[in-house]
């Protein structure tokens, strides 16, 4: 990756100020500073100011069951491309049941093998990337659900983003803070960092919905899961380009 590309990704991922983070998490700026001082909120000093990784905030809010504002979907738009929607991405990625595996490594390999990917994608490389991410810390969000590679997007040469949902044959220990073994994994593949952040926002917002999470917990049918996701997504603000078209 070039230096210019790395700087662009940094800008995409760490664009939130203290005020914006407080607004997103629907708390006061004083609370944000308190969390920083406690070490419970990841923050980065850039030009003597705190900046936040949007994906890390979303991950934190889900793991700690903190509601976040729908204003997360009104991201600054420097790109005219239409942003992805959750349900079509789930349909593209697929929902799979009874995946085998006895530990993180074997489960992640089974997930990668299940993904709907173009022929040119190196599945072994993708598997190694996911495995390396887990070595940095568990991607479990609690409640037996994990999203491998939450913080750093998997950006591949694909035409459209996808979300693969895999239910495991038996729960696997993932080092979750709530100590619950994981039985459901969502994996995101995106053509751009921006698409990843937008899709991650929609997925994590939907996981705050009790009925949708219940459908995941009960391992409901594909149709039921997609219907629940559609219900929640229909209540969300449309991406900017979609609003303009209407």
Mind sketching the topology for me?
Layout: H1 3-13, H2 18-24, H3 29-38, E1 44-46, E2 49-51, H4 54-63, H5 86-93, E3 95-99, H6 104-114, H7 123-136, E4 140-142, E5 145-146, E6 162-172, E7 182-189, H8 193-207, H9 210-217, H10 222-234, H11 240-245
Parallel strand pairs: 3-6, 5-7
Antiparallel strand pairs: 1-2, 4-5, 6-7
Summarize this entry quickly.
This protein is an alpha/beta fold and 246 residues long. 46% of the residues lie in helices and 14% in strands.
Characteristic key phrases:
246 residues, alpha/beta, Multidrug-efflux Transporter Regulator, Chain: A, Domain 2, Mannitol-specific EII, Chain A, 2 domains, 5-stranded mixed β-sheet, two-stranded antiparallel ribbon, 11 helices, 46% helix, disordered N terminus, disordered C terminus
Taking the sheet with the most strands, its summary is: 5 strands, mixed
The SS-based structural class is: alpha/beta
Side-by-side strand order of the widest sheet: 3-6-7-5-4
CATH C-level category of the largest domain: Alpha Beta
> Number of DSSP helices?
11
Extract low-pLDDT stretches: 1-13, 76-80, 240-246
The name of the CATH superfamily of the largest domain reads Mannitol-specific EII, Chain A
The end-to-end span amounts to 38 Å
